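User: Can you recover a sequence for this backbone? Please restate the input before giving your answer.

Assistant: Of course. Working from this structure:
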C-alpha cells in the first residue's frame, strides 16, 4: 500500500519508474507519450543527458549554499542568460522553487515597491476570473478559478477579478475581435477607478491562460490596451508565464507575442523542465533599485531560493533551448500539431474550439457546438477523458468546466519541444480514440 498522500485521495496511480525522450514508463513496462509535459513542464522530454550531467556535476561540486551568505556560479550564469534573452527592461532575477512562490514573490515585490516609493496607499491587486496563479494563499487569492478557491474563500486575501479575454465563450457575435479586446481590457480601467486610482498596485494576468481555461491567447490589441491603462494609472503589470513561458508558445517569453513590456514576469515549469523544481521572478531595474534604495533588501525569501543544483539544471535547460533553436522549432511543430488537430477534430460534433499557440494547445469539449453549451459538469468528463487517455498510453491534462455554464471541459496539450511529427500524429490518434470512447460511454 502506498503511503504517499496523492493529489486526489481516491486515485490509484501507476508507478512511474523511468523516462525515455517523450515517454514515461511505469513499473509494468507500459509506455505513455507525455502529451502535456505533466502540466506543461517537461519541455525537453525525460532523458536529456546534458541537463542530467549538469545536475550531477553541480551536486558533486556544491549542492547548497544559503543565499543570505553566498551567491553561486550557476545562479549568476542563469540570471545573466535569462536577462540577455528577456524582452523589455527586465534586468533582475529572483530565483524560487516553483510557480506559486514566484507569484507570491511578485505580489509582495509590487507591494514593497510602492511602500518604498512613498505610496503605501497602493494595496489592491486586480486579477482575472478563470485564471490560475498557484495554490499558496496569496497566489490562490489572485487566481479566479472558482472550484480551486471555493473551500478556502473565507481565508483568502481580498482581490478584484475582472473578465478574462476569452473570445470563444464571451465575445458577442456582433462584436469584432478588436472591439471585444478593447471592451474587456477597459474593464481594468473601470475597476481601477472603482477602487480609486492611487490605491491599485498591480494587475496580474497570464498572457496565454493555462490551467483554468486551456491555452487561451488574448485577442490582438488586448494587452496593448492593458499596458496603456497600467501606465495611465501608475499600476504595475505582472505577467504570469509560469505555464505559457519558456518557449512553450514559440517565444522564450510568451508576452513577446504581444509587443508589450512587463514590469514583473513569473516563470517556472519549463525553466527546470521537470529536472529540478525551480521558478523565477524577473523585474525591472527600476523596481529593484527602488527597493534597494529604500529598505536595502526585498523582505521575502525561502530557504531554497537560488539553489545551486536547481539553477544548474535551469541553466542547462535554457542553453539546450538556445543552442538547438528549440523555440523556433516550437513554432513549426506547433503549426503541425494545430493542423493535425484541425484535420481530426474540426468537424467533431463535440469539439467546440481548438486553440492555443506553439506547442500549447487545447480542445474545448461541448454538448452543443452551435450554442457552445458545455456538458453538465457533474459528468466529470475531463477526468474520465484523462483516464481513458492514460489507458491509450497518452498523458494529457484535463480541465473541468465551470459551474456558471460558460466554460466546458477542456484537454490541454503541451508536448515536449522535441516531439517528432510522427509522435504528434500519434498523439492526435490516441487522443481521438480516448475522446470517442469517453463520449460513447458518458452520453447515450
Ligand atoms: N501560475 C500559473 C499560470 C500556473 O499554471 C501554475 C501551475 N499550474 C502556477 C502559477 C503555480 O505553479 P506551481 O504549481 O509550480 O506552484
Amino acid at each position: 500500500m502506498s503511503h504517499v498522500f496523492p493529489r486526489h485521495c481516491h486515485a490509484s496511480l501507476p508507478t512511474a519508474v523511468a523516462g525515455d525522450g517523450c515517454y514515461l514508463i511505469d513499473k509494468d513496462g507500459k509506455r505513455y507519450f507525455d502529451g502535456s509535459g505533466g502540466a506543461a513542464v517537461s519541455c525537453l522530454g525525460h532523458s536529456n543527458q546534458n541537463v542530467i550531467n549538469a545536475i550531477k556535476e553541480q551536486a558533486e561540486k556544491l549542492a547548497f549554499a544559503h543565499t543570505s551568505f553566498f551567491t553561486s556560479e550557476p545562479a549568476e550564469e542563469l540570471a545573466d542568460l535569462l536577462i540577455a534573452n528577456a524582452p523589455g527592461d527586465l534586468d533582475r532575477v529572483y530565483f524560487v522553487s516553483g510557480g506559486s512562490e514566484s507569484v507570491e514573490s511578485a505580489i509582495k515585490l509590487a507591494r514593497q515597491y510602492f511602500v518604498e516609493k512613498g505610496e503605501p496607499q497602493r494595496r489592491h491587486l486586480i486579477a482575472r476570473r478563470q485564471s490560475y496563479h498557484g495554490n499558496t494563499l496569496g497566489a490562490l487569492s489572485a487566481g479566479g478559478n472558482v472550484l480551486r478557491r471555493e473551500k478556502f474563500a473565507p481565508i483568502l486575501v481580498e482581490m478584484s477579478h475582472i473578465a478574462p479575454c476569452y473570445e470563444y465563450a464571451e465575445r458577442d457575435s456582433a462584436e469584432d475581435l478588436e472591439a471585444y479586446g478593447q471592451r474587456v481590457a477597459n474593464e481594468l480601467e473601470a475597476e481601477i477607478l472603482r477602487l480609486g486610482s492611487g490605491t491599485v498596485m498591480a494587475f496580474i494576468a497570464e498572457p496565454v491562460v493555462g490551467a483554468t481555461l486551456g491555452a487561451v491567447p488574448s485577442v490582438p490589441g488586448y494587452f496593448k490596451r492593458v499596458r496603456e491603462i497600467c501606465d495611465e494609472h501608475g499600476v504595475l503589470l505582472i505577467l504570469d508565464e509560469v505555464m505559457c513561458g519558456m518557449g512553450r508558445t514559440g517565444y522564450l517569453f510568451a508576452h513577446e507575442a504581444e509587443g508589450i513590456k512587463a514590469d514583473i514576469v513569473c516563470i517556472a515549469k519549463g525553466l527546470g523542465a521537470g529536472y529540478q523544481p525551480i521558478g523565477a521572478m524577473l523585474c525591472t531595474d527600476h523596481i529593484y533599485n527602488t527597493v534597494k534604495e529604500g529598505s536595502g533588501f526585498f523582505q521575502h525569501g525561502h530557504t531554497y531560493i537560488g539553489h545551486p543544483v536547481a539553477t544548474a539544471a535551469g541553466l542547462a535547460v535554457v542553453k539546450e533551448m538556445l543552442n538547438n533553436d528549440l523555440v523556433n522549432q516550437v513554432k513549426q511543430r506547433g503549426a503541425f500539431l494545430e493542423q493535425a488537430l484541425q484535420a481530426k477534430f474540426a468537424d467533431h460534433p463535440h469539439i467546440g474550439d481548438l486553440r492555443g499557440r506553439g506547442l500549447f494547445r487545447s480542445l474545448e469539449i461541448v454538448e452543443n457546438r452551435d450554442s457552445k453549451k458545455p456538458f453538465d459538469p457533474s459528468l466529470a468528463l475531463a477526468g474520465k477523458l484523462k483516464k481513458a487517455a492514460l489507458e491509450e498510453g497518452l498523458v494529457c491534462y484535463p480541465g473541468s468546466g465551470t459551474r456558471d455554464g460558460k466554460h466546458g471541459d477542456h484537454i490541454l496539450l503541451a508536448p515536449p519541444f522535441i516531439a517528432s511529427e510522427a509522435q504528434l500524429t500519434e498523439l492526435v490518434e490516441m487522443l481521438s480514440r480516448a475522446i470517442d470512447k469517453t463520449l460513447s460511454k458518458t452520453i447515450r
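That completes the design. The radius of gyration is 21 Å.
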